[in-house]
Write a structure and sequence with these properties.
The complex is a heterodimer of chains A (about 400) and B (about 260). Chain A is α/β, with parallel strands linked by helices and about 400 residues long. Helix content of chain A is about 70%, strand content about 10%. Chain A contains 13 helices and 4 strands. In chain A, strand 1 and strand 2 form a beta hairpin. Chain A is elongated, with a radius of gyration of 35 Å. The two termini of chain A are about 70 Å apart. Chain B has a domain of about 70 residues. Chain B is about 35% helix and about 25% strand. Chain B is built from 9 helices and 10 strands. In chain B, a hairpin with a 4-residue loop joins strand 9 and strand 10. The chains are: A alpha/beta (about 400), B alpha/beta (about 260). The interface between A and B is medium-sized, with 12 and 21 residues.
């Protein structure tokens, strides 16, 4: 049996005493609502709607509810009576409960709101202008925290470089290993497929002009200059930026960040600097691997066009310069700082509770990718203007 | 009361526009076991976090051993913090380090002790809280009570003059809780450490506390100060007496009556 518990929990239908509601009239012409049977959490729902519907149809004031035929009543059953009373009050009428056994009346007394109703909470709906103002303030607060955090990291990095002994190199190595060696398979796979896809897509157009040999040039330039660093950074964000946010976020929730602070250890030096250094150290290697895998992917496709390997290699070497590769590595280093800093910032901004860690992880990936895309665009413009 | 080591002066805390407590003043004597009491949500932990310099107060001052915590920054603040040890409610042990590494960390950062000496001192601290043999365990591998004791050992790493404990007995069984009380008493008697403890556990309070203050949510201030047994028997405030006798039915609002 797949779900034995569920199966056992479902009693045989014919043995279940059901609950019902009906409207009854007496000789004097007065109408009353009769609730019968077992009004427990499992059955109250079946009569809830009908009871309210019947009550709405009755014009009697007070509306008499006859409860003498109720066999059992729990909090859910008693809530029907509360709902009926509220309905009557909303219509400016009264409700009279008759025949309710004492043990059930006690339950009703427990759940019935006493005294005057609490004032309704103010509406959470706000005007467009207020919402716009609020989101603008949120945006500027966000920007401010980003600037403050960047400043803190810069100051701390400067101090760490002046006093290298203050850097926790053991942590740098551990983070670098996790962010670097762990990422090798996915970087190689994505790089290879990216090169393959680019080669196929460019070959389709270039073949029309008999210029398919330039597929090699295209792969080399695109991978070394732009796509290698960009994709490596995006994968680093997804793998490590999220992990940084989750680790630091969990530490925040567990009061470990507070513990560091009261021990006189600055969280930025202790947690952020090792991660930033590790990301900056690791990303050039990841970019080189991504470039290599992309070129191999492109080569795999290029060979299907019946060219020899040496032709592909010569084209790639001719089309690209060391400057392209170094430019890509420089961009990558900047992306690395962004990934680590945003991941750590989101981690330190984590609120309380487990869901807050999830939110900061998501936010680390989203804002990391957005910032990388924006920085990539800025780099493209600057490199173009400088003629690099 | 012995000579004061902590002086809280007219301290007001606000959180999101809401006043948590208003112009609270008290003193903690050197070597005392001082307990902060009060109903849920009255700001006990907030007060503790102000005292250890994690939160900046809306107004008022906190003096620790003659130094103002509230205005301190950078190295001055670090100098004050070096006199304190803090145990957080969850223990807040660093999950990626063993218990020994957790205890050694403050020494690594703030002393020139060689690694052998650090390790030896850390082992003695762990022994002091009955955690001998657990040095190489990770925090995730030990029980809640052991985590709290390990956190006390870490807080003791630099032999601070004052230890702040946030709900040390919360979530512990009575035996573990009693053992923790014994540890606190021993540290207090043998080493003269001053303790500032936030707790709800009445049996613990009677065992360890020299003096308590009670915070109240309604008046946002201190409603009682003194030794716990005295407050239980002789307080003229009915809510305070009820609190100590664990009697139901008291609304905090009656305090002001």
């Amino acid at each position: 049996m797949l779900w034995p518990v569920a199966a056992m929990a479902s009693p045989a239908p014919e043995r279940v005493p059901s609950a019902s509601v009906r409207v009854d009239g007496d000789a004097a012409g007065s109408v009353r609502l009769v609730l019968e049977g077992r009004l427990d959490a499992g059955r109250a729902g079946s009569v809830w709607g009908e009871a309210l519907e019947r009550a709405r149809e009755c014009e009697a004031d007070p509306l008499v509810v006859d409860c003498s035929a109720i066999d059992y009543c729990d909090g859910a059953g008693a809530s029907i009576l509360v709902a009926l009373r509220e309905l009557q009050e909303a219509r400016g009428r009264r409700l009279e409960v008759r025949g309710l056994r004492e043990e059930f009346a006690r339950i009703l007394a427990l759940i019935e709101p006493s005294g005057e109703a609490a004032p309704a909470p103010p509406s959470k709906r706000e005007g467009l202008l207020v919402a716009l103002g609020r989101s603008s303030l949120g945006f500027f607060a966000e920007l401010r925290s980003l600037v403050v955090f960047t400043g803190e990291i810069t100051v701390c990095l400067g101090r760490a470089l002046r006093h290298p002994r203050s850097i926790r190199f053991r942590d740098v190595v551990v983070v670098a290993e996790r962010a670097g060696i762990g990422a090798i398979p996915i970087i190689a796979l994505v790089g290879f497929l990216l090169g393959l896809i680019l080669a196929f897509q460019s070959a389709v157009s270039l073949q029309r002009f008999g210029a398919q040999i330039f597929v090699a040039d295209f792969i080399g330039i695109a991978m070394f200059r732009e796509l290698g660093p960009l994709m490596a950074a995006i994968l680093l964000t997804a793998r490590s930026g999220s992990a940084f946010a989750a680790e630091i976020g969990t530490m925040k929730v567990n009061e470990e960040i507070d513990a560091l602070t009261t021990m006189g250890l600055e969280p930025v030096r202790f947690l952020v600097i090792p991660r930033v250094l590790a990301a900056v150290l690791v990303i050039p290697a990841l970019i080189l691997l991504m470039d290599l895998a992309g070129v191999v992917g492109g080569l795999a496709m290029f060979l299907t066009l019946d060219y020899p390997v040496v032709t592909f290699w010569n084209r790639v070497v001719e089309a690209t310069s060391p400057g392209d590769l170094l430019g890509g590595l420089f961009k990558g280093a900047v992306y690395g700082v962004i990934v680590a800093a945003v991941g750590c910032l989101r981690g330190t901004e984590t609120g309380t509770g487990a869901s807050a860690v999830g939110e900061s992880t998501t936010s680390a990936v989203v804002s990391g990718i957005v910032l990388i895309a924006v920085t990539a665009a800025i780099f493209s413009i600057v490199f173009y203007v400088l003629g690099i | 009361m012995p000579e004061p080591i902590i002086r809280v002066e007219e301290l007001t805390a606000r959180y999101g526009g809401r006043t948590v407590f208003d112009r609270v003043s008290f003193e903690v004597g050197r070597g005392e076991v001082f307990v902060i009491l009060g109903g849920s949500g009255c700001g006990k932990s907030t007060l503790l976090k102000h005292m250890i310099g994690l939160y900046t107060p809306f107004s008022g001052h906190i003096w620790i051993d003659g130094e103002d915590v509230t205005g301190a920054e950078g190295d001055a603040k670090r100098a004050i913090l070096s006199k304190l040890g803090v145990m957080y409610q969850s223990g807040a042990l660093f999950g990626s380090m063993t218990l020994l590494e957790n205890v050694m960390l403050p020494m690594e950062e703030f002393t020139d002790l060689p690694p052998d000496a650090r390790s030896l001192i850390a082992r003695t601290k762990l022994k002091m809280v009955q955690l001998e043999g657990f040095e190489d365990f990770m925090p995730a591998e030990i029980s809640g009570g052991m985590k709290k004791r390990a956190a006390i050992a870490r807080a003791m790493a630099l032999d601070p003059e004052i230890l702040f404990l946030d709900e040390p007995s919360a979530g512990l069984d009575p035996i573990t809780s009693a053992e923790l009380d014994q540890t606190i008493l021993e540290l207090s008697r043998n080493l003269g450490v001053t303790f500032v403890i936030v707790t709800h556990e009445l049996p613990s309070i009677y065992t360890i506390a020299d003096r308590v203050i009670m915070l109240d949510k309604e008046t946002k201030g201190i409603v009682a100060t003194g030794p716990p047994a005295e407050l239980r028997d002789r307080s003229d405030n009915p809510w305070v007496r009820r609190f100590f006798r664990r009697e139901a039915g008291g609304e905090a609002a009656e305090v002001s009556a």
